[in-house]
Amino acid sequence: MLPSETEHLEFKEAKTQIDGATLLEYCVALANEGGGKLVLGVSNRPPRVVVGTQALPDLLSKQKWILDTLGFRVDLEGVDHPEGRVVVAHIPSRPCGTAYHRDGRYLMRSGESVVAMSEDRLRQIFDEGRPDWIEGAAGPAWTMAEVIERLDVQGFFELLRLPLPPNQAGILERLVSERMVDREGSGFVVRRIAALLLARRLEEFPDLSRKAPRVVVYSGASKLATRLDRTGLRGFAVGFRALVTFVMSQLPQNEVVEQALRRESKLVPEEVIRELVANALVHQDLSISGTSVMIEIYGDRVEISNPGEPIVPADRFIDGYRSRNERLAALMRRFGICEEKGSGVDRVVHTAEAFQLPAPDFRVVPARTVAVVFGPRPFDQMGRDDRTRACYQHCCLRHVMSQSMTNQSLRARFKLPEGKSTIVSQILSATTEAGLIKPDTKVGASRKYARYLPFWA
Fold first, then answer.
1. Which end of the chain has fewer CB atoms within 10 angstroms, the N or the C?
2. Is it the case that residue 270 has pLDDT exceeding 60?
3. How close are the terminal C-alpha atoms of the chain, in Å?
4. Of 346, 337, 350, 420, whose CA–CA distance to 379 is shortest?
């Protein structure tokens, strides 16, 4: 079996022909995604097999036509295969800071389709090669005392688990060596990254004050009645612990009965809040002005969102990792706020399973990424989407742990008895039909012993 489609690989059957406009669009989209290969004559749905193609009989003339039409070279290669002829289009990457377009439409792939590139992604491409905004100056040159007055330097050394130097010169020397502050003449210029992480009061940095995270608490399950609306004051790192504590203090409480004893339990575990807030702070698009990380608390759920659409597709959050702000992420990891690369969402999903919560819902809306975590809900009250989402996330989590999902493991995830195996089989079938999971062919066709993999595995 041939490999699955990836960011740099696209399959098309095209048994007899491929429309010229479609060919050009895929060349543009793949080039915009860093280059790759378009393979004709292979089924584009699993099981992926060679079906052969009669398309593009004159490869050299078609190569010239693509070059004349698009302005960049695509090499076309014919491959003889026992099951039929295959054509491979080798598509180069776009230049840094440049996006290709077709008739004015900047294109990218979305599933099996080619769509117009999002404004967020287009902005990222055009910003490539430019000086990083986050490394720019957050204000004019200040004296040592003025820098220390504006930054929580004690918090900085505590987060790094280092002793505080005995004098201002030692403090500034460390900040300069960490590229948080730059010397300028007899003064010091604070970089934006330092202010974002360490500011005592973000409002003292005019172009950063709107980046402060905001917490909104609603009465009930809708936005009709706002009970509280508060914006953070401090930098992301030095204010993180207080932010999480405040959010937890605002969560509704549920009464849980265990072994005849009643206890109060928060709507969502603190570990989930901590991981998702940290992710939102790190992965936000800081180039979008006038907006910030939002933490919205409802009676039945918490929605944590950040500016910007994700670089990694939402359905690959569990196994994929690519930070928009690598140095910010690296510092947050050194401060002990973020986990190792790619483990944050894994921990969120794992915790949701451990507490028998509905699966988190990761959504992408225009210019924003949203993570929704739900309070406790019995299995019988979960809808079809809730169940298939939980099945897919469970499958991804098992896969990244080098394990396979089975009927038994999914029953355990939902805390269902063996007598509910038929219901779980229906969930597995629905999730397979949705194209989110697939049977592991290595274990044969037996449904009783079937194992499942994520669609991308």
1. N
2. yes
3. 13
4. 420
Provide the pLDDT confidence category of residue 446 given band limits of 50, 70 and 90. Answer: low
Residue whose entry in the numeric block shows the structure tokens 């491929």: 18
What's the mean pLDDT in 302-315?
90
The rounded distance, in Å, linking the Cα atoms of 453 and 457 is: 6
Largest alpha-carbon pair distance within the chain?
A: 79
Mean pLDDT of 372-393: 94
Contact 290, 212 (CB under 8 A): no
CA 379 distance to own-chain centroid: 27
Q: Nearest-CA neighbor of 342 among 361, 310, 360, 320?
A: 320
Instruction: Quote the pTM value.
Output: 0.75
Per-residue model confidence as pLDDT tens digits over 13-26:
999 999 999 999 99
Distance CA 457, CA 397 (A): 12
Residue 178 has pLDDT above 90, yes or no: yes
Q: How far apart are CA 269 and CA 266, in angstroms?
A: 7
